[in-house]
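Appendix B, Record 12. Input sequence as logged:
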Amino acid sequence: MKKQLLTAALALFAMVVNAQNYTVKATLNGLPDGTEIELVPMSHDNEKPIATAIVKGGQIALTGQQSDPRLIWMRVKNSYGVGKFMLDNSNITIAADVRQEGTSQGLPVYNFTNMKVSGSPLTDEYYKMYDVRNQLDEVYQSNAKKYAGVQQQLNNAKTDAERKAIKVSNEYKAMLQADSIFFHDVEFRLDSTINAHKDSFWGPLLMMDFMNYFRPEDKAVLDAMSPAAKNSWYGKKVYAELNPSDGAGSPITPFTVKDEAGKPHTLASLVAGKKVALIDFWASWCHPCRMEIPNVKAQYAKYKDKGFQVISISTDRDRKAWKKACADEKLQWPSFLDADGSLADLYHIRAIPAMYLFNVATGKIIATDMDARGQKLADKLAELLK
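Logged structural output:
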């Protein structure tokens, strides 16, 4: 009798343990053996993989535990392109065709097509909610195709007179009206979908998935959500992004970075003897970043002898592209590569250019981002370094 009870107890324990684990079995047609696959939680941050596996015979298998549901980006390591599914403690089976389609920023781009996910009701639910984005994308592509001609005319215009003539045409006015209707529909339909799920983790998850960045008015959207939504992993992520701790008046975050020779440099050593410093997160492929460099160079030439320092941190993943951009731009101040994203993570960089102007003596941030660029940067430096 005791033996029977022990056997039953062990079986029950095994069932409980198994219920707290997930298994993911994926057939990834098109990938050679040895390819490393990562499962990365979707967020606006540079998340680290929660699991990895090596393709063997076109398949991978993973097991683990997931305390709360996450939207997962399944991707080939060191590449772009993802397949998406919801991960919880379920037995999930995935099949997809995966093909490389060109490169971007020196890395391969993979396309996940014909992706089928079974054993995951949450994934089915997510796909239904995300369909609103698919529908909006179709409208956007249709509008772009319909008005491609007038947009091309505008791009090819060489004088203000030519641009003005295009902008009074009926086709251009129709394009503006179509854009206005489209963006109004985007805001209404995405907001409606998010608000319909404000009582669970889905609300903040959809906020993060639908939006590339948050606006100040999005605080009200999160505030209206339930405690369960706010306290979820995604709720806390959205709150942290809406309430950054690195704004004006906050202390600048210290760091250590290595140069090309492997020599470490602390932030303190890089700004020693200076009064005001600008940290500029950029990348070779970032057009707005490159457009701002001439302004920074002009301010550096004007104020470098009055105590102004600039430190450039590139988020490039392609070292050759970064070195070429540095040479092309003829940067005259310390410049470093953050290839592994550790400094970008430390500063919670979600978009570039990201600028931090700070007082060296106090270590306090003076201005960030748009307030530390263009004419605003020039005005601040004129005020601080008279």
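The chain has 14 helices and 15 strands.
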